[in-house]
Amino acid sequence: MGTTIVITIAVVLFVLVVFQLARMMEYVSILRGEEKSRTDNDQLQGKLMLVFLIGGFIALGYSLWAMRDHLWIEPAAVHARWLDSMFFITLFFTGIIFVLTQVLLFYFAYKYRHRPGRQALYYPENTKLEMWWTVIPAIVLTTLVIIGVYRWFQITGPEPEDSMVVEITGQQFLWNYRYPGPDNKLGDFEFRYISGINKVGIDFNDPASRDDFMATEMHAVVNKPILLRIRAKDVIHSVGIPYMRVKMDAVPGLVTRFWFIPTITTKEMRERTGNPDFNYEIVCDQLCGTGHYGMKGILVVETQEEFDAWAKSQPSFYETYVKGTEEEVRFAQVSEQLKKEREGQAQKGAKH
Ligand SMILES: [Cu+2]
After folding, report:
1. Predicted model pTM
2. Which of 112, 188, 228, 304 is the most buried (most CB within 10 A)?
3. CATH, domain range 164-338
4. Closest C-alpha among 185, 228, 187, 219 to residue 318
5. How far is the CA of 237 from the centre of ligand 1 (A)?
């Protein structure tokens, strides 16, 4: 903290000194005569262009070096590798163009700075040059877009048949996870059933919902596709799993989806990172309110055996928290109410 303040003050003082020096030189020039002053100023500005160019690249290099451990994390899903390779290919081409254009821009501003007696060259067009700088970027960009669209359809296409499924529901400020239980089928839901206990509004009239269980963390099997069915209860959230390169909005009233294949177990990642406390984090990628920063979850990637043992230990939500309780009575009342409303609407519709 102290170092930051000292550096900031030093930079501010340096800028002030340069500014004052420039002004002083200007006054000196004015004393010497008007025309001379303009030339001196042009000389200074031209040289500052070079200073800016070199200083800028040194700063860029330093920030990349200082942040080298935070620029990239190992991809832990199949599609994450595709995304990373596209990212690096794009960065490669745009990086070349960036360096080239910046060097030319500032070097030319320096080289062709005003000097007495020199006249600018009138050079309005060069068809051949313009053709090349249109055709080459067009080919490169089209190739990048074609690869991107191809991968996008793969990533957002239908999930493989052997996928497991989990429902993830965002709310201010936590994630709820629902697993389908032994029947591998998530039961229906209806927002009117949401209560303090039935947090995601499971519809217990659907037999498939009876064995569903709610988990405190998300579990996935390594090398097995997992489909996220994503919902939100209040505002727009976004499911973000950085290591898996997963990011999909959670929108109230809509079920969005994202499937991926994790390739590295949590255990393996702990060894690779040398961090025994490592966990895949699930974060909210959409600024959703004051507690947004705390909206974190954990994804555990494990073997099929470990997953099966865990799933077996998770009790059915209905059997444990609803059956024979006040919640079941409340659920029956809302259910009855809904049925009446729907019948009423159907009759209305039939009359018209
Ligand atoms: Cu959120």
Report:
1. 0.80
2. 228
3. 2.60.40.420
4. 187
5. 4
